[in-house]
Design brief:
Layout lengths: L1 H5 L10 H4 L1 H5 L7 E3 L10 H13 L9 H15 L8 E4 L2 H12 L5 E6 L3 H9 L3 E6 L1 E3 L2 E3 L2 H9 L4 E5 L11 H13 L3 E5 L26 E5 L2 H4 L7 E4 L3 H13 L7 H13 L1 H25 L13 E5 L7 H11 L1 E5 L10 E5 L4 H14 L3
Parallel strand pairs: 1-12, 3-4, 3-7, 7-8, 8-9
Antiparallel strand pairs: 2-10, 5-6, 9-10, 11-13, 12-13
Length: 390
């Protein structure tokens, strides 16, 4: 299977945001730029999924479609088998992506001007969704030392005590690849219960745990916490299906589940993409072996980068992630501004995500996407050596 992941596919001129829209999205132009920014990977989706999609396309009719028993059963079985989580079918709401679902949840659960808590550094699009829905971003900065990042529960308590209405948790956390453990999640849930706030847990990275690690879903919490809990999931990040736009929100609170579905209907979002459902179903049914081999390949990429930095750029460090294919490189030793850091990277021909876009605590970092063939990573390392030398 490694040969499959070693294969380099030309993604240029495929309308790929990552490869074709650096000028429009980042204001960066160049024919030889190596994009390591957007968090999708440069591997084909599992062959079983490609075959299922081919058969569905051969049918040739793409009328209005609905989720069937096979769709729900595949999703429920995946979470039970892989994550030891039992999901009730009548708690599932399917929507066209995690961010749209989070936006709907915020509209249902909170009011304009309400505070929504994010752990930072964190995914910048969360802040955008909060602000565009006229809510207020409340930052709960993560604590960082040589051993990695930890939650600041005392500060979180203070934020909730002052009236924040929801905690938007990313588990595993983007950009640092940290998996929050059961005790940490329970402490957040206890605080949400104490202050009558909501816990919205984005677990889109949960399937992408690296070898020998396991993520803990918030759905494993005792049922007493479920009335204030929404969990967002998707097959898209796991199996390279991002543009097919399908995700599942698990909403144990029956009243909120009903309001969520009603809000979807009010916006005309209660129609489902037949190809997206086909791909997600097949991935959940038959993608586990492929995924395990993918994550072994990603771990080897992480090890390769770690060895390279140790030997060539020892002043550039990172905490080894436990999930995902992203690394959060600490470039503070260069003692340069974010603008200069970005200029150096562009000049060297590599395009990471800049740390300052991940809100507070991101300045001086870059996020690098290692979801790529080894040949691409080797080229990236050569360019990093030019960009990040002292």
């Amino acid at each position: 299977m490694e040969n499959v992941f070693n294969t380099t596919h030309n993604r240029k001129n495929t309308s790929s945001v990552k490869w074709d829209f650096m000028t429009e999205k980042l204001g960066i132009d160049g024919d030889d730029l190596l994009p390591m920014w957007v968090s999708d990977y440069d591997f084909q989706t599992p062959p079983q999924v490609l075959n299922a999609l081919s058969h569905r396309i051969e049918h040739g009719i793409f009328g209005y479609s609905e989720r069937n028993d096979e769709y729900f059963d595949a999703f429920i079985h995946w979470y039970k088998n892989k994550h030891n989580v039992t999901i009730e079918r009548d708690s599932i709401a399917t929507i066209h992506g995690v961010l749209p679902g989070i936006a709907l949840a915020l509209q249902i659960l909170t009011s304009q001007g309400d505070g929504i808590i994010l752990q930072t550094p964190g995914y910048g699009s969360f802040a955008n969704i909060i602000q565009l829905n006229e809510r207020k971003v409340i930052e709960n900065p993560l604590q960082h030392d040589d051993n990695g990042y930890t939650l600041n529960l005392e500060h979180l308590d203070s934020c909730l005590q002052q009236g924040a209405k929801a905690v938007l948790l990313c588990n595993p956390h983007n950009p640092i690849g940290r998996i929050w453990n059961y005790d940490e999640i329970e402490q957040i849930a206890i605080l949400c219960e104490r202050y009558d706030a909501w816990l919205i847990s984005d677990e889109i990275w949960g399937d992408l745990t690296l070898p020998n690690y396991h993520y803990c879903s918030a759905l494993r919490l005792p049922t007493r916490f479920h009335s204030r809990l929404i969990v967002a999931t998707a097959s898209s990040k796991t199996f390279g299906l991002s543009s097919l736009r399908i995700s599942n929100f698990v909403i144990p609170n029956a009243k909120i589940h009903h309001l969520f579905l009603r809000k979807m209907s009010s916006l005309g979002l209660d129609v489902y993409n037949s190809l997206a459902m086909c791909a997600a179903t097949e991935a959940y049914k038959n993608g586990e072996i492929w995924l395990a081999e993918l994550m072994t390949y990603v771990q080897n990429n992480l090890n390769y980068l770690n060895d390279f930095l140790t030997q060539t750029l020892p002043h550039i460090t990172f905490n080894m992630p436990k999930a995902g294919y992203l690394v959060w490189l600490d470039c503070h030793s260069l003692n340069i501004s974010d603008d200069e850091l970005q200029h150096r990277c562009t000049k060297a021909g590599i395009v990471p995500s800049m740390g300052y876009t991940f809100i507070q605590g991101g300045s001086g970092y870059i996020r690098l996407n290692l979801g790529c063939p080894r040949d691409t990573l080797e080229k990236a390392c050569i360019r990093l050596a030019l960009a990040l030398a002292l």
